[in-house]
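Quick one:
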Amino acid sequence: QLVESGGGSVQAGGSLRLSCSYTRRPNYVTWFRQGPGNGREGVAGIYTGGGDGHYSDSVKGRFAISRDNAKRTVYLQMRSLRTEDTALYYCVILVAASYWGPGTQVTVS
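Output:
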């Protein structure tokens, strides 16, 4: 099971933190997003076993991905949000296969 939370509406320049909670610890967790009229874009990823996060150029320096293995949760801290960050954000976990969450909406105005 996989659940995202933390989406919402925020003004440009604001912050939000998304959470991705899972029942079985995956090897890798990725946050994807799909904005209006756009394809899906991978924005950040992290190995749950250690190491730093990986980021797309569009969010590097503004977003930070982190893990809490005790809570079986990966977070995406989003700062300096822009209107172009408006999208449905999906958490994708890689175990033996990839599993997608239902998504959480982020709207920046």
